[in-house]
Amino acid sequence: MFALLSSASFSTADTIPNFWDPKAVADRPANIPDKIQFLSSDEHPPFVFRDPDGRLTGFHIDLARSLCEVLESSCSLRIVPFDKQISALNEEEGDAIISGLARNQKAAEKMDFTDAYLKLPARFVVRADESDDFNPQQPTGKTVSVEAGSRHEAFALRFWPTAKILSYETAMKARESLKSGEADTHFGDGLSLSFWLRGQASENCCRFSGGPWLEPGFFNEGLTIAVRKGDIERLEALNYALRQVYHNGTYRELYLRYFPLSFF
């Protein structure tokens, strides 16, 4: 039932994040939409991308498909450039945007948003041979590399005055400083670091240390699905389906498939 349409306390490796209250009771909405046409782009692996055979795949593709199976709705996906998606939604060229949008005050004036289905925490990484006595809560006296101008730099400068903060032009240069020993630790985006740690560029140099940082105002924004303002039927249906996908184990399967090294 999923057609593709084209158009111009966490620390372990397999930790599965939970953004839904396990005690909340959610009844199936009385009104379920017969169809949902999702809008997305195809240049953001591992969320949406094309495999070597040119077929669309990714976390968002499989998540959308799973939501529709829960709702028993007919669904399709239309590929639209990221900067055209909001106008396409408002012009009713689609019903929901699944491109990792975050809810913010400006966007909330134009669209409604589901509950967050994924958040992007900050994480520390240290060299693999580093002893376990590093304290991420108080990196006093440690040299911490960060990307200049990033929220990670802003957070480090504000909350760790007793650490030496080294700012680099890019996140990659900040990571390289950890590999070379110039920095004791690197503080950055957990998602991209999870792929760096498993990729060739890291040369197995490093590992996560401590758990995720999700401080409000810095790292607590979540990825959501956007619908047209006032489309309460689809909003309630998608929120219900997101909770069901988590509780029936599908979310766990998708998370481990696309994020084999958990960034939580």
Structure description:
The chain is of the alpha/beta class. Strands 1, 2, 5, 6, 7, 8 and 14 form a seven-stranded mixed sheet that branches. The chain has a five-stranded mixed sheet with strand order 11-10-12-9-13, with helices on both faces. It has a two-stranded antiparallel sheet with strand order 3-4. It is built from eight helices and 14 strands. Strand 3 and strand 4 form a beta hairpin.
β-sheet strand percentage: 25-35%
Oligomer: single chain
**How far apart are the first and last residues' alpha carbons, in Å?**
32 Å
Amount of helix? 25-40%
Structural class: alpha/beta
**Total number of β-strand segments?**
14
Overall geometry comes to elongated
* Main sheet attributes: strand count, strand direction, barrel closure: 7 strands, mixed
SSE topology string: EEEEHEHEHEEEEHEHEHEEHH
Query: Please, what is the average pLDDT?
Result: 91
Low-confidence region ranges? 1-12
Number of helices: 8
- What value does the Rg take, in angstroms? 20 Å
